[in-house]
Design goal:
9% strand; Rossmann fold; 10 helices; globular; 2 domains; 5 strands; 47% helix
């Protein structure tokens, strides 16, 4: 139920959907012989401020900068393993009968994992994720990642698959169960920068917290206020999805605090 509700809310609270709602209300008012002016003005304001200003990119930038950007492994020896959260592969497109594995907008999760695996040849690679789709068909994301990684030369003996999880809390719970006897600070956690705070919070809730390694940044290091560039709805969709996700996870005890940060002590268990 939680999984389905999260998907519905993700669509319902997107900037594009809210714009459609305002336009629909304007049309409904017109059909009822009432003035649609108020709804049209609100729609134009929402489009102008939401899509043509940097308001949403500024919020997304704050979220991406919540977890420090790691680019160099700080310990003398290499990481023991690399954890890759699902979201790099377009599962639906990869199972459409064309026979190719399609990387999605979060492709850097996969490519950075392979880069680290090349630089640290003793590190294991954990691909975590079954599917984020409501009605998945064909190979799951972990299986697709395995097939693509081995096809690109990664030794199959280095790969560990976790193919039960369907959301971030389940990613953390299943991976922590697999690796609970390993030193967490020797493992790298790869996911998109805008998603890293929620991912770190979910691992904090398990008591096993790997080193965050954010990728797939959608904003530069700093975003200033401005207008004129159509980036707001794209950034706003990601920002809204994550803020709602953080709030929902906090209210359901899937993360220990609303705004997780790496230095926070782990507490509690995923429920």
């Amino acid at each position: 139920m939680f999984f389905v509700l999260s998907k519905v809310l993700s669509v319902a609270l997107s900037p594009q959907f809210l714009l459609l709602v305002l336009l629909a209300l304007a049309l409904l008012a017109s059909l009822r012989k009432r003035s649609p002016g108020v709804w049209l003005v609100l729609a134009l304001l929402w489009l102008g401020v939401g899509d043509y200003s940097t308001l949403a990119p500024m919020g997304l930038n704050w979220l991406e900068n919540r977890i420090p950007h790691a680019t160099v492994w700080q310990q003398d020896d290499g990481p023991e393993g690399i954890i890759v959260l699902g979201g790099a592969i377009d599962q639906a497109a990869s199972n459409n009968g064309r026979g190719e594995i399609v990387l999605g907008s979060g492709a850097e999760r996969f490519t950075e994992a392979l880069r680290l695996a090349r630089d640290y040849p003793r590190a294991k690679v954990v691909f975590s994720g079954f599917s984020g789709l409501l009605d998945p068909q064909g190979e799951n994301e972990g299986e697709l990642a395995y097939r693509l990684a081995t096809g690109l030369g990664l030794d199959p003996a280095r790969i560990v698959l976790e193919t039960r999880s369907r959301n971030t809390a389940e990613n953390a719970r299943e991976v922590a169960a697999l690796l609970h006897d390993r030193p967490a600070d020797k493992w790298v956690l790869i996911t998109s920068a805008f998603h890293m705070a929620r991912a770190v919070g979910c691992f904090q809730a398990t008591g096993w917290v790997p080193q965050p390694w954010a990728v797939d940044y959608r904003t530069p290091p700093q975003v200033e206020w401005g207008v004129g560039r159509r980036e707001g709805f794209s950034a706003g969709g990601l920002l809204g999805h994550e803020v709602v996700g953080l709030l929902a996870y906090w209210l359901t005890d899937r993360i220990p605090t609303l705004w997780p940060a790496p230095a926070m002590a782990a507490e509690g268990q995923v429920k």
